[in-house]
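Lab notes, practical 5.
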Amino acid sequence: MMESSESLFDLEQDELPFAEVLVPLPLEQYFTYRVPRQFTDLAQVGCRVLVPFGRQKVQTGIVIQRHSKNPSVYEAKAIMDVLEERPSINAHQLSLFSWIANYYLCTEGEVLQAALPSGLKIHSEINVQLHPYYDADKEPEYPLTAHEQLLLDHLQQHDFIPFSEISKLIPLKDPSALVRSLVKKEAILLFEKLKDKFSPKTVRKISLHPDYQQKEKLQALFAQLESKGNSQKQVEVLLLLLQLQSLDNDDIGLAKAVHKSELINKGASASALKTLVKNGILHDFQETIARFQFRGETKSLPPLSKEQEQAKEAIITALSEKEVCLLQGVTGSGKTEIYMHLIEETIYNGHQALLLVPEIALTTQIVSRLQQVFGDKLGVYHSRFSDNERVEVWQKVQNDALQVVVGVRSSVFLPFENLGLVIVDEEHESSYKQFDPSPRYHARDVAVVLAHLHQAKTLVASATPSLESFYLAQEGKWGYVLLEKRFADAQMPDILLADMKKAKKRREMVQDFTPELLTQLRYVVEQKEQAILFQNRRGYAPFLQCDICAHVPRCKNCDVSLTYHQFSEEVRCHYCGYKEPVPASCEACGNSQLITVGLGTEKIEEEVVQLFPATKVQRMDLDTTRSKHSYQEIIDDFSQQKTQILIGTQMVTKGLDFDQVTLVGVLDADGLLRFPDFRASERSFQTLTQVSGRAGRKEKKGVVIIQTRDVQHPILQMVIHYQWREFYQYELNERRLFRFPPFVRLITITLRHRDKSSVKQAASQLARHLRSNLGENRVSEAHEPLISRIKNRFLMEITVKFERTGFNVQQGKAFIKQSGKSLMENKNFTGLEILYDVDPY
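Output from the prediction step:
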């Protein structure tokens, strides 16, 4: 980090000819650039600037500091352009970037890359044009393929084509080889062109020219047009325009412009419209409009029940004493209504509020409820939005045009100017943790720091809080409020265990359904109620297996089996994306009998459709929700009871609220319980409790059937009896005994390399170095992770545990990072990558 620049701003701007610029690259330092005189006043701290970087490359950087010190190591290049008059990044964000980089052992450039929307990054785009010496009429020296000829024919009609557009013109997934071939044949040239990604949304509008916006002049115009025999269509256009404007007063000047497309769709003659514009009677202009507009009417806040009101007051009291409060409210207790009232008070006091949700799927329901109250004050921010949509939300937050934002984890990077409250809904969810790429941050923890920087308050909430949050609340470091009663006296569902082992022994299983679950499912279908079926694995089956030799098709790039997807007739790797058609026979022995092993959501969907052919069934997982509006469509269909049975992965467990769901079925709880991770028990308890909470949220009491082969498992017994206090005490005792969070801080160091022996040697060397300096009780031996090869890179891991008290964690982190840097500079380990994951859970 550079020194503070506060004293430097006492100087005149002309005396600050240099700027420290942060670029969105994984580099440890800022870079000094010369500020040309024309940008002296514009290049403020936080502004986006265009800077040359490397060989003929351009980057969008952020000014971090202005100073007068000329760099001694290199000659400072000049800033090419300042991209805005007002900074996109404020002081709070710069402080947050610095904290994230230090805490999560990454660079500020990586944080900037994650934080800044793509639409705010000007980038250079590769374009293709015909070679100036190319002669289409001349016989080519080298023969051309059909695809090459097609591209050349297109370029003869256009000045150039972006490289990214070639695959739309020619049916090739990767046109690189085609382009290289044409460059070699001197038929085309490549060139770079700067492209600004953000463009505001505009519409064409039509209005009366000011000369005709008085009644007398308009009447004279009609008389003039009607006197001409060929102006009837122009008269019709004018009448239609006035009709759409719905004029009800004498002041035509107050009339609003009309969308040009609306005029045309209503039957206006395009040629007559063009003539009226040409003659200066109508004004055709372009207007910038917002991409997000709430068109309904807002409603008053929903009233709180006695229990909700008490919880709200308790939260306010807790936050008056502490910066953070944990709200533990059972599923269906009405936490969202409490959020609304807290947000309303925050806005009333002149501040902004941020509501974090773990999944895009959850935003669709919660946004519609909040929009009814907050209208255009509310904005939404997540990755399914286009670049332009995200930039528009970014700018509205910066201008204080949005008082409330609902968003996923990346929302913590928004440029809040006046933040007063941050709410983290379903704070236990693993979706808040960014795993790849860096920065590997946890949005809940970053949100707490963000609120602290703004001197704001943070409310974290869940029916099943994470052990870390619960521990902090019990230790008195956070406030704590408990809400144990469901809203409107709705009853908690009955949770039953169905013994799969016994059912299989008695041959009572119907495909993958126990008699208990199938009976309840039939009852729900007959009663026209709704059911949710949960299986935390997408695809048809986890893998295919040869019936003779037991060979399993595996990914060519990773040490994992390929998941079978029946609908697309392929086997696919869920780690690197590799896929291939379903093999016709076993590649090991040639046997044509390949069987499916395990259970995925796609297979469950097929079985349910077979069992209930007249029932509408939908599936919600990563494969069915790739398009922008797919979440909304699936949830809307289920909310409107167009769908009776919804099958899904963890997406269906996250805070969704449906009135008619009376049955939840968990197809296989054992996969959750037996996952090789220290948080398996916690994740299982949370997931099963959360998905159970989707049932019976209104008048009708719900039923939950959990299928398992171990009905006596202690975690399952705690789930079905709602023994959350016993669970937390049981799990905390286990964590204390084996030194796991929340009693230690955990860091996972992952080394990866294309050569297996090299990565093993490097990991062993790093582990020995860390163990000898930090202590053998704090650093594990190097070991292979559960999946030891991903994307053709071999992996090794080292686990570090730092006690929370009595040890300088920041010094320990700095030593780890410096040790890793020294190892990567070793010529024996060229190509080695080291990844740091702080709090890897």
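Observations recorded by the TA: The chain is about 35% helix and 20% strand. The longest strand covers residues 793-803.
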